[in-house]
Task: structure prediction
Amino acid sequence: MPEPIELKLDHRMDLPDQEDLLDRMAQGVISTPMDRPEGPLKVSGTASYADEDHPPGTAYGWFVRANIAKGWVTGLNTKELQTMPGVLAVIRDDRMIRNPAQGGDAKSPHQGPAEIFYKGQPIALVVAETFEQARDAGLAARAEYKDSSHKAVILPAQAKYEEPRSKQSSQGNLDRAMKKAAFSVDVEYDTPSMSHAAMEPHAAVAWWEDGRLTLRGSYQMLNSNAQELADALGVSVKKVRILSRYVGGGFGSKLGIGHEGVGAAIAAQKLGRPVAIALHRRQVFEATHRRSETRQRVRLCCDADGHLTGIGHEAWVSNLPGEDFSEPVTQATSFTWAGENREIGHYIGRLNLTGAGSMRAPGEAVGVPVTDAAMDELSEAAGIDPVEFRLRNIPETDPSTGKPFSSNRLADCIRIGAERFGWSERPKVPGSRREGEWLIGFGMSAIIRVNMLGDSTARVTLRPDGTALVETDMTDIGTGSYSVLTQIAAEMLGLPPERVTTVLGDSDLPPSIGSGGSRGAASSGSSVMLAARALRGKLAERMGCDEEELTLKDGTVIAGNRQRDLADVLAGDSLQGTGTIRKGKAEDGHRQSSWGAEFCEVAVSSVTGEVHVRRLSGVFAAGRILNAKTARSQCMGGMIFGIGQALHEEVFHDARDGSFMNRDLAEYHVPVNLDVPHMDIELLMDDRDPFANPMQAKGIGELALCGTAGAIVNAIANATGHRFRSFPVTLDKVLEKLG
Amino acid sequence: MDVTLTVNGTPHVLEIDDPRVSLLDALRQRLDLTGTKKGCDHGQCGACTVIVNGRRINSCLTLAVMHEGDEITTIEGIGTPGDLAPLQQAFIRHDGFQCGYCTPGQIMSATAMLEELRQGWPSQVTGDLGSPALSDDEIRERMSGNLCRCSCYPNIVDAIREVAGKAAEGAA
Ligand code: FES
Ligand code: FES
Result:
């Protein structure tokens, strides 16, 4: 093939988009519910995940983990382990890490496994010829410790809480507003430690060739993951390549490089042969990240007409010493509801527990259900219908900064949702509707998730035969990246999607922001759009017209009354466009968020305390929807995640040493098929947000989770007449109140 | 020792030198049939579901050496990317998966489950024990051993109902 003709288009998002370019294209594939292009591979078991396609000669690793919560490793029965069948190496290496990197760190997490910060921390790695031998030797490992467990801080109640200045804010005088208000609530809620529980355990297969590492891993953000791994190993990032073609779920647990990646790379280097490490499910629970537990105090007050006059939200969260991340619980509180007197508090306790990190919608996932449940309490106190109460309190502008919203569709979502759900049938008096043993109630919640953009680059190549190749290091963790990037390129280039191939998940490809924070599709998608636009410019030049006059459809190039075959215009050339989108000033002047509303009907057994979610429906506005099918599935997944959060999910930490008492999928309960009803999901397909990016699309992967649990506890309150302020609402808690 | 497993109709003689090798690891690591997934290695998630002598089992909970002479069907035996079975096609149409990791297990489980239903096996939600119907709740209950953290459950139910419904029409 001849050298491609290279074209470039960079765009910094300083001004709102005025062109709405995708709406002017002719192919008509964008936004359609196209099937996932990788579907045939996934349903036939041929899509290849991290712990597969092992190179010949692969050895297997198993982590030895700390049995105490705090102290130092002083010795290990290494000699004994080395004599066990098949054992190749027992590795203790200062480059091994304490906990996985946080999303976007781009540098190694805390290293030096000899110092123990939490029970279950990996301290050594055993490598053997077979998986069974490695596991056996790993379980036979006995470490010696300098044990300072008595100094470990396990319970939040024992922790000293930091109060970082930058995370507190206040305006007006909330105390006074609370005193003067016609109605007020001052309530405390708590949410437990939770676990991502992606179905694919974290795994990595590493091998070195000519001083360069290739690592098959299960990661979400390859560009920063490669930097984290290189930094941990002490090599240049050029010496590291990470492949994550298919990722079996992430939900934030695979944002940063983890033990398996660093461990496999070190072992492969030492042994001079490929090494595979797949974390055991228990190790996934205890040695990756958790979502921090939270304690939250919410104060709300309103006047006699139900207009909010004040809102206060304080959150106590935790993490390991020295970790920058802390669950940003109050993130959406600053702008969701009106009220001139406001207070935000954020306090971080340092605990010797498995590190806390981002789990699907860090912040809003636990913050919105709580503020929304408190809103529900206040609406009840004020005697105003919950829908009406929320509609009265949607601010005109961001009440904390006075900045306008880029777009605010919350009221639309609430109104449409109420109508579709049949909200008018809601039992007016809590605890008044009964079907035999079942108490029936309706509840709703606003759904809020901030919107972000991340710098991303993609390459799109038009080949002489009129097919296109899309390449970026973006990942598809089930989110639909393969689908939407294919559709964007197909739309821009006027090609049927079958003529577009999308290659992702290779850190050697142009860097994207990766999958995290619901930024991936909009950010990497914009870079694909820009790359394709660069190609359109070249085609227009060849047609002797302006790009605006160019129509591309079904592989033909149309300018005015001239029409030519794309391959004919390419005339044997390959055109290669590189597109880059960068964050800019557009996000400074306006508050950006995705919006939604969810409605729920529950039945609560007065005999067993079980809660059944009978109906759950949601309406969502997230700018342009890139693929109606995958977007809907993301919303469905988020809503079901919320069922788990409301009713099932809780990590129980042993009060003595912090270890997980329910560290597997039989004891940590995620929703199963029978827990889930049919769902009504409506996407506002006409929504656009010109401030977000040139596609005017916003994040949708986490949105639907951000409030679901609120809708469910509000429905439980309507069914039973009792407020439940401790998540999850398990049967024991229900029975205690029902008496 | 040598163990003969017939996988997707093809007999394989495997030298299993370690009795601890699970059927799941034998398939994945020794036969390179990685379509069958390992989610927990504990019998708790269903990702490793295969059909052995006509019944669905969790292949992580059984040892390879226990399956001398057994007929094993894995996802690779259900259909290939170029020649997908109706259930696989329905999973694509209804978006019965996202990350795809639980999917082979879901499809294996659904395949066996429909046969169990056809043979009249009752389940926890069956009202009339004599004749379980193909209701959504029967599908949900019978698929509840297959976890999906992407949470595609409603789409999985849609896909299974469509295929089972068509098959029932064809038979009637
Ligand atoms: S891997 Fe066998 S049930 Fe989970
Ligand atoms: S598709 Fe991801 S776990 Fe089911």
About this structure: Residues A 199, 249, 478; B 97-103, 148-150, 152 surround FE2/S2 (inorganic) cluster (ligand 2) (CB under 6 Å). The CA atoms of residues 72 and 159 of chain B lie 24 Å apart.
